[in-house]
User: What shape does this take?
Amino acid sequence: MNRATRTLIVAATVAVFAVALQAQDNAPASSSQAPPPSQNQSQTQSQQPATSANGTYIAVDPLAGVKYDNRWDVSVGLASGHIHAGPNLREGADLGGLDISGSYWLTKHWGLEASGRAYLGTSGTLPAAAGPPYNESGVFVAQYMFLGGVEYLGPHNKHIALIPHALIGGAYGDFNKEIGRGGSTTGPTGIAGFYDNQVALGGAFGGHIDLNRSPHWVFRITPDALLTGYDGTSQYPHTQWNFGISVGVQYKFKKKR
Assistant: This one.
């Protein structure tokens, strides 16, 4: 092989390598070398709602708007109370009825509350009244309470609130509707041993346990110590402390303080 031939072969080889290098530089980048997404693209992707085969889910908190800045509220509940219909009756009576209460809030924590309560049921009598015409375990009695006082917004969050209160007022006892209204059958010394019908001192000391269901609707439980001061005659004073409870709903009006 002469010198000219060798020179031609070397020149051709160099030309081939040059063409190959130029083709590699001009080739498009592969998918593995794609540039990372920009910051705006990342934020857009993170803000998209979660989706599934059934559609888009949007998280909603029904208690997000719960606040304690309303001026008025009202509650209605089924009530239960225990009483003694006479000063010498060993067994008391469990009565049922209705509790309607309303509040006017002066500040965030202090408010005025009014409450009307009706308790109806039957009571046992003294043994002398057993048998006809009286049923020892089934004589009708009733107690109506009209109370007012102060309440305080205690520990609270969007789920629950504790609101103690102290209410005082009057209690009307209807004890002789079924046994007559005179003679020797009524009064603490009568055949049934009941008090005379009367208006007496009444009170409720306890509070509310509020479980919020929405910004306006509340499930309310109200346990109380019920105070009554019935007095058949001056010889039979009888201040009673009994347990009472009501369960119902409360509505908070939109008007704010």
In short: The longest strand covers residues 237-252. The longest helix spans residues 3-26. Residues 72-252 form a domain with the Porin fold (CATH 2.40.160.20). Confidence is low (pLDDT under 50) at residues 16-21, 29-34, 42-47.
